[in-house]
């Protein structure tokens, strides 16, 4: 009788230990599931950023300088997605300067050429005050940027007028998907997608230029460059502001 009682007590004790172990395993599994976004979230976000432009035509990358490095230049690199070829770079001395200038082509025979070598916008009037043709000092484009109510850009080049508009009225550079520019017709109807921005932190930004912008000629359209300039300028200023 005593042996049976002792056996029963030991059995209950082992059952209690098993229950505690099971609860511990359930708790550990639950905590690991909760922790997954914290563990893999940043890595997944960085991977998505790195491959954001994989299916696009041109990738433009910018790492804006910090507030402490205000004298450093902001450099934007333009590259062809399909081959990884670095086409050219734009640079600005300060994020609050109102122009990005073409530094130079990466090779003597690049696959693509920019229609414009210089872009300047007067941010008091939002007008395109200087848009020189590539490899020239002649004004060859006019237009303006309307940064309110979303974003609207109009550019006239060689007698052709093009307009584009951001898909979203409320946006910031930290939003996903951020800015998505579409060309629009005379009635404001949305046409082909032009470009889309992606951010990583507050300093890094990519502009993915859509394959729909690829033409038979080897020239990147002026309205694409004006829109890219405006976004680069704003991101550079934002980078300095958010690292104060």
Give an overview in words:
The chain has 244 residues and is α+β, with helices and mostly antiparallel strands. It folds into two domains: 1-50; 54-242, Tubby Protein, Chain A (Alpha-Beta Barrel). It is 29% helix and 35% strand. The chain has two helices and 14 strands; from the N terminus they run H-E-E-E-E-E-E-E-E-E-E-E-E-E-E-H. It has helices spanning 2-50, 222-242, and strands spanning 58-63, 74-80, 86-92, 99-105, 113-114, 116-122, 127-133, 141-146, 152-157, 160-166, 180-184, 190-200, 204-209, 219-220.
Q: Give average pLDDT, whole number.
A: 79
Oligomerization: single chain
Radius of gyration: 27 Å
Provide a count of the helices. 2
The number of E-state strands comes to 14
Helix content: 25-40%
What is the percentage of strand-forming residues? 35-45%
Sketch the topology as an H/E string, one letter per element: HEEEEEEEEEEEEEEH
Major pleated sheet: 12 strands, antiparallel
Our count of domains comes out at 2
* C-alpha end-to-end distance: 79 Å
CATH topology of the largest domain: Tubby Protein, Chain A
CATH class descriptor of the largest domain: Alpha Beta
Task: For the largest sheet, list the strands in their spatial order.
Answer: 7-6-4-3-2-1-13-12-11-10-9-8
